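[09:14] KT: can someone run the structure on this one? pasting the chain below
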Amino acid sequence: MKKNLIKRVIVGVGVVVTTLSLGTFMGSSPVALAEDPDITETANEDTKTVLVNLFFQPVAGKAVKITSAFPEIDDSQFGKINMNDLLKVEFTGQFVEGKSPYDELSIILQYAGKSSERNQGIAQLVKIFQMEGFNDERLLAFATSQFDMGSQLIISNHLQGMTIDLAKTRTEANNQAVMSKLDSSDPDYDQAQYKAQDFYIYLKPQSVSSTVASQTSLTANQHATITVGQLVDATTFNAKATNSAGDTIPVTVDTSQANLKKPGTYSVTLKAENGESKTVTLTVQAAPSPVVPNQAVVYGLKKIYLYQKPTFKPHQRVAAYPKAKRTNRPMFKVIGYARSKSGLLRYQVKDAAGKTGYITAKSAFVAPVYYQKSVKKIKVLNKQGINRYQDLKLSKTGKHVKAGKTLKVVGLKHYHLTTRFELSNGQYISANKKLVVVVK
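[09:31] RB: done, structure tokens below
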């Protein structure tokens, strides 16, 4: 039972303890992350959770299987990303520049089972991690937990003395990520909405030399697409480089021939510290216009969260707004716009209580409070009824209309950032969706 538990919580492109990592960072149970419905709700706002079976495959012997759910995958990227793009979402901001989960796995493989060198292995892990908000003591505790859990997996599956076959694993990582949708009959349906193909991390004996691993390398996707204003770095092209010892080294991106503020297709040069370079193609696409104008009001259609930053992270939630009936839906005033690291549009908003932050701009989750098109009939929803007015400003009160009453509409008028329905008698009524509803 203990061995199976370890396999469930140790996740990653190497022996990276993803579930444990985020659990430690958030101060929550490490096993709960992949199955936490609250995390799944976040993924449903703008992203999908994808299930991946990871295998550590030695040259000889049975592969070690680990099943993990990877949240925060933008479903608009399905069919465009490779396996490395899918898996790397979990590790953004976890490693110092030039280091990756491959380096973590290599260190743990090197020192696993060597009790006299345990502290040395942990010290090597401390050097490659960077965790926002962690002091030296907390970073050491994090590295220690990573090392001990990873070592236990390696030892229990007799993988000591192995190292990563970088050439074969990189080939595997560059394969396109093929998604298949899960349905309610699938045993994994409670963990994820989609499932990707199996991913293999190939291992080989440390004593066996590899011609490819002993040579310098620079690999990258030949093409990438960004939105106007997005930053470009090595991860944009999934660029990786190694030195003659097979260690990961930084890759820089020369965008001097590209205009990141203007749509178009440009040539970009990738350069590694090993002296290798590669010319790739970058497409800059126009950013879609915001759905609603600045200072307009929107409301939530489903359960949504208010976040501190435009790249949504569960621990940065400011407030939660449950799904509610139309008349009780939470309203937000749009005060600005931003984009996540992957380019998703966010509304910067202020809620009714004065709290500010960012919410999703997806139409499935938020919509303008005021109708934007004319209709033929409306019905009063507000329990207290609603007033007719003789002017667009709604300052000259006319007859009061009770809840449930149906009214004929002859037009729609704009007043600043709101709208009014023009009635057949020449008077006006608010086009607020919380007060009235369109009927046939």
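[09:33] KT: thanks! The chain has four domains: 2-207, 215-286, 297-367, 377-439.
[09:34] RB: yep, looked fine to me
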